[in-house]
Amino acid sequence: MNIKPVSMVAVLAVAASLSACSSSNPPGNGKSKAPPGNGTTATVASPSSSAPVPAHSSSSAPVPAQTGGPSDTLVVNSADKQATVYVVAGKGGGLNFDGDQNGKLTVTVPAGWQITVECHDGASIPHSCAIVSGGDSTTPAFPGAETLQPFSGIAPGQTEAFAFTATTVGTYRLVCLVPGHESAGMWGTFIVSASASAPTITS
Questions:
Q1: pTM for the complete prediction?
Q2: Residues 175 and 163: beta-carbon distance below 8 Å
Q3: Which of 97, 138, 140, 161 is the most exposed place for a label (fewest CB within 10 A)?
Q4: Calpha distance 3→196 (Å, rounded)
């Protein structure tokens, strides 16, 4: 049997043809190659759909206690009908709430909202916070609407919180129930409104 010699030209032609076919039909693995950059070739996955990023939602947790914290602070969560009021009792050492006396500080909240009050003692003597129905009343107007020991008060520099639901429309008092403090002017106005759309603080 005679074997005819194959020329080197023919071999090179066949190799070139196979190489061209391979490069024009890459494997269908759902991936593509990124253009060369620094001498390496990175493999990039094909784009895929991703879940939408959830909208930011406000936390309903009470505002953290702050030493010597801000007065007139109001944090509102309208979606859940919740609000946190931060009050400084004895600001500057006086018998006041946020520096105001005799009802000048006014907190207004919509009826049915859950209210958290952060009461910070900013003085050198004990103070407390409570929501009562009127002058000389020592009973909370709503269940839970007072600091833990309203008559002995919070230690200077400390903060206590209480929460309640403002169920009944009316005008109430934010008071310090440590004996003698309310009568000396340490009270503010607390209004539960049927028409208010959001809580407010004015002074």
A1: 0.66
A2: no
A3: 138
A4: 103
Question: Hunting for tokens 């049997």 — which residue is that?
Answer: 1
Which tokens hold the place of 134? Answer: 């009127």
Phi-psi region of 98 (alpha: psi -120 to 50; beta: other; left: phi over 0): left
Strand partners, 114: 82, 165
CB 95 within 8 A of CB 126: no
Structural domains in the chain, sorted by start: 73-202 (2.60.40.420)
Instruction: Pick left, alpha or beta for residue 182 (phi over 0 → left; psi -120 to 50 → alpha; otherwise beta).
Output: alpha
Beta strands in 100-157 (DSSP E): 106-110, 114-121, 130-132
Would you put residue 44 in left (φ > 0), alpha (ψ -120 to 50) or beta? beta
- The H or E element that residue 167 is part of is none
pLDDT in tens, 41-67: 222 233 333 333 222 222 233 333 333
Give counts: helices (H), strands (E), the chain: 1, 11
Instruction: From 45, 42, 25, 24, select the one nearest 34 (Cα to Cα).
Output: 42
Structure tokens given for 94: 């006086």
Contacting residues for 107 by C-beta, under 8 A, at least 6 apart: 85, 174, 188, 189, 190, 191, 199, 200, 201
Q: What is the pLDDT of residues 100-116, one digit of tens each?
A: 999 999 999 999 999 99
187-193 and 106-110 beta bridge pairing: parallel
